[in-house]
Amino acid sequence: MRTTENQLLVIFGASGDLTARKLVPALYKLYQEKHLPEHFAVLGVARSFMTDEQFRKRVALESKHIKDSDEFIAQFSEKLFYQDLGDSYDVSYMELNERLQDLNTAYQTDNNFIFYLSTPPSLFEPIAKNLTAQGLNDEREGWKRLIIEKPFGYSLDTAQSLNNDLHRYFKEKQIYRIDHYLGKETVQNILVTRFANSIFEPLWNRSYIHHVEITNAESDGVESRGGYYDKSGALRDMFQSHLLQLVALIVMEPPLSADPEEIRNEKLKALKSLRLMTDPEVLEQNTIRGQYLASEIDGERVNGYREEEDVDPDSTTETYAAVKFYVDNWRWADVPFYVRTAKRMPTKVTEVVIHFKSPHHQIFKNSNINKDNKLVIRIQPDEGILVKFGVKVPGQGFKVERGNLDFYYSSLGDTHIMEAYERLLLDAMQGDATLYARADEVEAAWRFTDPILEYWKEGNARIYGYSAGVWGPEHADELIEGKGQWRNPGAHLADDPGYCVIE
Ligand SMILES: NC(=O)C1=CN([C@@H]2O[C@H](COP(=O)(O)OP(=O)(O)OC[C@H]3O[C@@H](n4cnc5c(N)ncnc54)[C@H](OP(=O)(O)O)[C@@H]3O)[C@@H](O)[C@H]2O)C=CC1
Ligand SMILES: O=C1O[C@H](COP(=O)(O)O)[C@@H](O)[C@H](O)[C@H]1O
């Protein structure tokens, strides 16, 4: 059992959206579930002026994301404090340090500090530098950890220079780069499915796997984040980070143990083995970008991307990205990977599908099976795993249909499944970086993504429009043709069509 030592959590960007919507509710849940240490406090930091009481009201007492009895919330709120930084950096950081030391003494947090940077990325380096100037990176008394929000860089160059900047002030082992997909239970379950069973891993290679398909679909548009998204796009926002982390978990070799560095070493090797696409012809044939157009969903008009708030009316930023690629190593040679991510799809769903090859000799010639075995790892919603396999239809002869063999997390009843930010915060509090991305992993992911972005930026690849509420541009079907078709899953895995369900 890992221990959570006494500590003080400092959140930069405490007046922002993420703090109110994700971080404080996650801390509250950890408090409810009794995961927080006996001596614990949170200091929120931003430029806006607020008293402790105003901060508490804003993020806890009046938060629609926290629901519980007033008394319990009030107890939790007493652990929350706020310090404004104003605009004059040196003086402010000195005051911040004094406040920290006072809280550290009052709450007996043993000089253990986590600094969570939930600010615009341009502030990651200056905050690390200012903390260092105050000696707040020094681990001689108590440990110091730095959590960095996404996006981590905008390209390989910018990610490398951010890594270099941060390493000037903090050691790699002090740095925790958030990728909230790694905090999802079902994403972690990929490791368990593969390495805690002997029934999947022997098949997990080019001899048995036909192709791998990953879909990340959101039904929402860009909502209020148009300003950020228009400079980012689907490839930077989802593919480079969350989806390549999923790919790494699917592709990686078995680690020696569940030790964080062993797992991260294998993920790095996996990311390094993705075949770089630099030839324009290859990029043209293997990547597709799209942008959603205005449409009607359930009788209501929804905006096209270019009409969204804070989006350039002539924007060529992609809201749909599909990439086909190969992994150049012994295990995966010639197995195509198809990964797509998009906004304004028919439903919100993320899943990994391992498509197995057909049996190499068909005995049941009259069977009406034209689909192969599949392993569906449903990341969200309706989290679970589904195996599609052939079963005999009762009656004469050998008619074969696809049956479903499944497991759903919802069947665990009342078991509390930690939300990603809860899990990640608790891990950082306990000094476990397994579910955080290491510097070299992030760079390897950018190395693969950069040439696609460059090719798209040059205006070479066409940007296909698709109506909001459909599965992306029709042209994307050509990418996967010859290997089958996109699975276009429904919201509920439990409703996945199958001849029978084996309980
Ligand atoms: N919101 C979301 O759903 C997601 C956000 N993220 C990431 O989380 C981070 C925060 O995002 P979000 O909360 O949405 O952003 P917001 O714009 O809502 O908040 C930014 C915060 O940074 C503060 N800030 C700005 N300048 C400074 C400064 N000089 N010193 C200290 N604080 C400062 C702002 O407060 P003030 O103006 O008072 O200083 C505010 O509290 C970003 O890196 C974002 O990419 C990642 C995934 C999802
Ligand atoms: O990081 C991000 O993720 C969300 C999707 O997260 P999920 O947990 O709801 O799947 C995405 O909407 C956002 O654009 C992106 O920045």
UniProtKB/TrEMBL annotation:
Please state every residue range assigned to the domain named Glucose-6-phosphate dehydrogenase NAD-binding: 10-189
Protein name in the entry:
Glucose-6-phosphate 1-dehydrogenase
Identify its protein family. Belongs to the glucose-6-phosphate dehydrogenase family.
Q: In which pathway does it act?
A: Carbohydrate degradation; pentose phosphate pathway; D-ribulose 5-phosphate from D-glucose 6-phosphate (oxidative stage): step 1/3
- What residue ranges are annotated as transmembrane? none
Active-site residues from the entry: H242
> Does the record's keyword annotation contain NADP?
yes
Catalyzed chemical reaction(s): D-glucose 6-phosphate + NADP(+) = 6-phospho-D-glucono-1,5-lactone + NADPH + H(+)
MF terms from GO for this chain are:
glucose-6-phosphate dehydrogenase activity; NADP binding
Origin species: Dokdonia sinensis
NCBIfam families found in the cross-reference section:
PRK12853.1-3, zwf
Please state the Enzyme Commission number of this protein.
Answer: 1.1.1.49
Which Gene3D superfamilies would you find in this protein's record? Answer: Dihydrodipicolinate Reductase, domain 2 (3.30.360.10), NAD(P)-binding Rossmann-like Domain (3.40.50.720)
GO cellular component, alphabetical, reads: cytosol
Q: Per its database record, what is this protein's job?
A: Catalyzes the oxidation of glucose 6-phosphate to 6-phosphogluconolactone.
What Gene Ontology terms for biological process does this UniProt record contain? glucose metabolic process; pentose-phosphate shunt, oxidative branch
